[in-house]
Amino acid sequence: MSEVFKALESFKKRPEKKHYVTIQGKQYQVGLEKKLEIMKHGEENYMIKPAKFGPEILLRPKPKAKTRYSVLKTAEKGYVFQAGDIHWPTGTTEKGETWLIEFE
To answer: Where do the structural domains in the chain lie, given as residue ranges?
Structure first.
């Protein structure tokens, strides 16, 4: 029976698999969970932040969408609407209403 245990001990243990990712042109060793997360979002969507105990790999913040929309406001020269209906302009006048583009 001791020969079986000796045979089991003689087997080499499989080396632990290392996982690497390339971010901003440099290669970093990470754990399996982090590697899968980076593969899911894409390596180009991550950045390196210097930290106290080594570099920290973070997901880049998504840029906020700048929406453009038209708003009806009073201006120096603008439209006059029939019965206040914005779909029926009757002419232009001083201190009338006009469509202006605003950014959010």
So the answer is: 2-59, 68-103
